[in-house]
Amino acid sequence: MQRRLLLHAILLAALIQGCTTPQVGYDYDRSASFSRYHTYAWVSSGQEATRDRRLDSSLVDSRIRTAVDAQLRAKGYLASLDGRPDFFVTYRAGMKDMMKGAATQRYIGDRAHGTFTTVSDIQPYNEGTLVIDVVDANTQQLVWQAFVKAELDQSLSPEQRDARVNAVVRAMLARFPPQ
Asked: pLDDT tens for residues 80-109?
């Protein structure tokens, strides 16, 4: 019973904890001519199934696509209406259950007699990854990619999730197109 209470306390502490700053990276094909890109379309196949119900959700898919669409529109790109875009966009998302923590040793007793005790503070958390790919429509080659890794907070409200996804996608697309 005490073990169960401890586990619940650890889970609660992990959920209360705020999200960490996402680590964003990007890469691109330096020979690609990004100045000729004006229209885009989503790859029709969509997000690959991850077998994780937290990710394989129309809510998550819609949230990510809406954020990417908004950022691309803000940069002046238009969704292709004629079915012949200049580039395609796709994404992949993942989530891992992780543990973090530290162990501290303490000495209890006097100089002559005592013992060391170890106190561990281990907390579970979820680490999420998101990759956004831009593929040239003519060559079908990957020309730009952004990737992010961040700690996820499962206790966020839908509004907070929207804001978090929007902020992460904005950070990811900040360097698209490359200058």
From this structure: 988 899 999 999 988 777 677 766 777 677
